[in-house]
């Protein structure tokens, strides 16, 4: 082997930029044999699938490169990206305390790669994408992650599909953080606009992006608009012989949305669709598609009283709750009434047998606590 090849050196690399091939041995010094030996050990760790060994050997290979290669040698940046990727994968399997420390190490490796590539190829090189995206994924604060995504998106100017992909990744990572939620929405809006102009209506990437946007609309309580979008998206998944996660997610969300706008009958078809898509679990409590929380009885709250109620009921063929019966409770009738009032509005995916919905029993426990 006369060169270290990035295609194998970073199997988990983000892969948007052009692949960098490490230069031939003649461009380096006589100590390259130590680098190749370390790299061979890394490859063996990859084949064995041991994440700790992979990270350890990636670290050793990188450190040899730092010590032995010239600062202008692009292989060091390549191996820094490799190390960041190995540490990032390791962190996913660690405890929260270990995860934070390993993520920080991964970030540092990606940052070193960025610094080296900026010096070697300039600040506008597309080769910066991999380390920037690695830094975004391992940043300790959402705002920092946003800035790295934004720079990567700017570097992709003139490549609309690449920009849309980066915007989708940014949205997925940033949408749940209050300080970056607005930016996340801007990313998904731009991605959807690009995909709608670049891809056909039935394109899977476009539909998945439109589904994300519909969920944003639902979260903003723009329910009618979200319903229209989800129903339109579902039309592209009709007739599939398998359960597609986007179709399942759309049906599930539509149950909630129709219930919230006071149209329970319109939710029925979606309850049944979910029932057909998901197997009935006999050995566990059924999870409602739409759940209304019981109101804590005011008098009980004033008195500081806790309690619980266990209710047996049937789920009918349309996913409605019927035949409710309190089988155990503690705390008094007020808790029982609050529980029954709430349960009457719950919706479930009905059980299916031989392709048809059937009535099925279930139970639920509702706990009332002021803690």
TrEMBL record:
In terms of superkingdom, the source organism counts as Bacteria
Q: Name one GO cellular component term.
A: plasma membrane
Question: Where does the protein end up?
Answer: Cell inner membrane
Any signal peptide, and if so, which residues?
1-28
Tell me what topology the record assigns in the membrane: Single-pass membrane protein
- The UniProt record lists the TonB C-terminal domain at 281-371
Ordered alphabetically, the record's keywords are:
Cell inner membrane, Cell membrane, Membrane, Protein transport, Signal, Transmembrane, Transmembrane helix, Transport
Q: Please indicate if the UniProt record lists Transmembrane helix as a keyword.
A: yes
Which regions span the lipid bilayer?
Answer: none
A GO biological-process term: transmembrane transport
List, alphabetically, the PROSITE patterns matched: TONB_CTD (PS52015)
Record-linked SUPFAM superfamilies: TolA/TonB C-terminal domain, TPR-like
What PANTHER family does the record tag this protein with?
Answer: PROTEIN TONB, PROTEIN TONB-RELATED
Similarity comment text for this entry: Belongs to the TonB family.
**Protein name stated in the entry:** TonB family protein
The species this protein belongs to is Ferrimonas balearica (strain DSM 9799 / CCM 4581 / KCTC 23876 / PAT)
């Amino acid at each position: 082997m006369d060169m270290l090849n990035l295609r194998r050196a970073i199997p988990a690399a983000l892969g948007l930029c052009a692949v960098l091939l490490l230069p031939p041995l003649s461009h380096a010094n006589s100590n390259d044999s130590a680098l190749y030996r370390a790299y061979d050990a890394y490859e063996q760790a990859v084949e064995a699938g041991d994440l700790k060994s992979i990270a350890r050997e990636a670290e050793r290979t990188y450190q040899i490169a730092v010590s032995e290669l010239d600062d202008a040698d692009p292989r060091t940046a390549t191996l820094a990206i490799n190390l960041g990727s190995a540490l990032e994968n390791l962190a996913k399997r660690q405890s929260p305390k270990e995860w934070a420390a390993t993520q920080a190490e991964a970030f540092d490796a990606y940052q070193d790669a960025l610094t080296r590539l900026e010096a070697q190829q300039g600040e506008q090189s597309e080769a910066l994408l991999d380390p920037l995206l690695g830094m975004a994924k391992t940043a300790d604060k959402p705002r920092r992650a946003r800035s790295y995504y934004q720079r990567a998106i700017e570097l992709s100017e003139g490549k609309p599909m690449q920009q849309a992909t980066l915007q989708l990744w940014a949205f997925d990572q940033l949408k749940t953080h209050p300080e970056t939620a607005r930016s996340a929405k801007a990313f998904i809006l731009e991605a959807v606009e690009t995909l709608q102009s670049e891809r056909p209506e039935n394109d899977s990437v476009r539909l998945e992006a439109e589904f994300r946007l519909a969920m944003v609309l639902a979260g903003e309580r723009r329910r009618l608009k979200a319903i229209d979008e989800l129903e339109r998206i579902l039309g592209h998944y009709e007739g599939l012989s398998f359960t597609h996660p986007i179709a399942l997610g759309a049906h599930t969300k539509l149950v909630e949305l129709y219930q919230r706008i006071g149209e329970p009958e319109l939710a029925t078809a979606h309850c049944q669709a979910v029932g057909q898509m998901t197997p009935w679990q006999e050995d566990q409590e059924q999870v409602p598609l739409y759940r209304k929380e019981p109101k804590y009885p005011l008098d009980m709250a004033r008195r500081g009283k806790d309690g619980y109620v266990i209710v047996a009921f049937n789920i009918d063929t349309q996913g409605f709750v019927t035949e409710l019966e309190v089988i155990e409770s503690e705390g008094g009738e007020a808790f029982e009434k609050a529980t029954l009032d709430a349960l009457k509005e719950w919706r479930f995916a009905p059980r299916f047998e031989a392709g048809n919905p059937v009535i099925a029993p279930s139970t639920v426990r509702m706990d009332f606590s002021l803690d």
